## 1
Amino acid sequence: MFQCLGDQVKRHKMNLFTQQTVMLWLCVARTLTTAELVKLSTVDSVIVWCHQSVRLQCNISTSQEGLLIKHLAWVRQDGKHLCDVNGTEVTGTHPGSTTSAMECSYTPQTQLSLTLLQVRPLDQGKYLCKLRSSHGVKEATTMVKLQESYKEAQPSISDEGPTCTFTGVYPDGEVHWFQGPNNVTGDSTINTKQVEDGASLTITSSLKRKTVSGEEAYNCSLWIPSTGSYLTSSLVVPEHDKARVAQPNASGSGSIGPLWKPFLVLLSTLFLV
């Protein structure tokens, strides 16, 4: 009798184990199947010039019809929701509403785009596209990185000497001065840095040198220590009492004309010797 009872208990435990195993496999299979029903795709990372715009696209694809999107959003790494889709309604941040303006656009069931306008250093980081739908929950990530850049170069001259101001500088930089082949950075007596809204910098440097009409022009070059290169250069010409920028492009992204690149390499070599 006791043996029969023991066998019944064993069979009962075995049945419970079998039922639990089957239920576990069903849950796993359902999860895997649901995960394959819908996919999100974004680019892994983008590199953008400071003060320019970038568009982040989150693409939705599904292997079955009947996808019901319950919630779709672009979310910054600090948890702030930038674009939200609830049903067919799209809400987001629009130009002028914050310092870092952005726009949202939505193609139903297909794509949610986030455009960052006038990207600043504070806008760098991770952006997540999050989806909650009838076919499962998915997430994709894009990293936004900034290229070294500046917004504007403002050279000027007075009887006291030349001055150069570079605005919107990213990352941190220094102003190096040259007169012909001579490095005269040591003569700069006024050097200031101010943090702008968005964490870029305004860098100003002056030479305390009496300017004489007809003397050789001064050159102020923006040096970026983190990259070990010059970003742009400006000429200050005493005989005309004015200054001119050495061929930056119209966007202010800091590219230098081909004629100036060998010159700046020479300046860099002279400075580092």
## 2
Amino acid sequence: MNDTGIDAVLFDMDGTLFDSERIWDVSLAELAHELGGELSPTARQLLVGSNLLRTVRIVQDDLGTDEDDQRLATWLLDRTCALFAAGVPWRPGARSLVESVRARGIPTALVTTSYRALVDVTLAQIPAGMFEFSVCGDEVEHPKPHPEPYLTAAAALGVDPGHGIAIEDSLNGITSAVRAGCLTVAVPEEPGTLSGSHGAVVLALEEVTVDRLAGLLTGRRHDEPEGVWR
């Protein structure tokens, strides 16, 4: 038990806790080069929070190619794993947020579209025990934006999703968490990258504290949200 009223905090990985989208920029650009083209900025934005097979299909649609999706997905996964192994940096304020959540006795889980291979490479670089459970994109039948990943994490922790908080950065992730019933806080890397809130509270990552999260959850329960919903 803890004194916050928060049963669990469920964190997305790429772009939320870790500055890994920059790494994906490299592997995706290399994939596009292998296919003889260059990924458009519009397509790159669509890939944020996307699962692996959908990612390679978007890349191919953008470039007008029609290679084997599974082969390209394997290539992209292997290349990105190699890049992750060189070091995946935390986003500013992310590690201290996770540590403060843990210090207050709140269970945590990692809920990501990335495959287990990438998650294991990332988890090997941080202290053990920061997350009690992790759900990966290749471990669910329906990845984000379906609610299954967040429902799976909540069930594993033994909590009601409505008593938990999801921290996300992408539209696919926000949609998944909101559909699961979580109070969802969006922390996009760049202001204005989300067009509307899509049911989430939008904050800068540096603004997120345990007490603020507790206030938001209490406010929702009383239908009087604390802070600005936008």
## 3
Amino acid sequence: MPKVGMEPIRRHQLIQATMQAIDEAGLADTTIARIARTAGVSTGIISHYFGGKDGLLEATMRFILAELGATVSTRRRALGTSDAKAHLRAIVEANFDDTQVSRSVMKTWLAFWATSMHRDDLMRLQRVNDRRLYSNLCCQFRKHMPRRDAQEAARGLAALIDGLWLRGALAPEGLNAERAIHIAFDYIDEKLTASTANRGTRPTSATAHRHPSKESIS
């Protein structure tokens, strides 16, 4: 009979072994036997806890996504301000945090993205993650600009984060997280500065009331 309290330890151990195996051999050659050997357990343990390789891959991605969500929350709570620019920057920094850019995690992310195109359960995880990022970004941009502008700015920043991360993951020299963060920061500054300038050219509230915009009547 397993010792009380061993299950969380075993699960974490196997998730770490999965990322290590993907790092070393790629997803196609990451077999149950290889993961078990890396973790120093029997293959039956993996079947017992996860039902097989597919279940273990899903659990591994849930673990990485949970770490990302926790990192975003921790950085935002530490700000002590509701300033949109600060929160947008914190979200960017969290996506390039050490927990998301280690070699094993990056290779697992890449394997996850590729596999999610063929597995509904992983695709759902991917969509949840995408929507969470977009929603967080849009909420902050909305503090400075109309809804449609905020939506476009959020889509742009989300695409920029993913693109910078992906290019870094595939680059022979690896990801330069600091440079990627600065590029994303420049995008945020550009959007917020443009929004401030646009506010100065908009009609007064009285004029806007007489001539409602598409934004106000949509």
## 4
Amino acid sequence: MIALTRRSARRLARDRGGIAMIEFALVFPLFLLFMLGAVELTNFITVKLRVSQLALQIADNAARIGAGSPLAAKQISEADINDLFTGAQLASTQLDLLKNGRVILSDLEPQANPNTAGRYKIVWQRCFGTRTAYASSYGRQGDQNLTGIGPTGRQATAQDDNATMFVEVRYRYAPIISTSWTPVFDLREIASMAVRDRRDLTRVYNNERVAAATC
């Protein structure tokens, strides 16, 4: 009986049939964690890139809006700005910029013309998105005597008798895998564009009497 037990033990010690299964069981959790991390990182990079592109698109479109004859300065209206934000929402598709984000569009103009002092003012500001807790990091409507708008070293300015459209986009990023080890956090992107055509800078018109997208 003892000899049989010893032979069985030796046979069991030489058996390698279950090693692959054991190795797979040990490695699989690490492999799964790596794959989930790769998926989450890819999604984060994709969303960040799309938010950056949205900011650039809004700034570019804001620099082009307006109506008027080729010989007159273009007039922009509250309806134009609302259409601009509606287009951004449609472009955001499943990101749902209205629900998950906040867009702040600022009109930056020279303090004087000619602007020999190199100072600027935020003439008007319009916002879009339900995340109302997000405020501009670079100024509010009515701010004057600014050296520019934007982060230090990357400030946007405006040419004499012209304006620059400055856009801030804040987006609430939610991970697709789990919020226990990848918490919800905010993405922040900025973009600016100089107004393309000669624009009437006296005011934002509202002949249509639509609700202004004030901040």
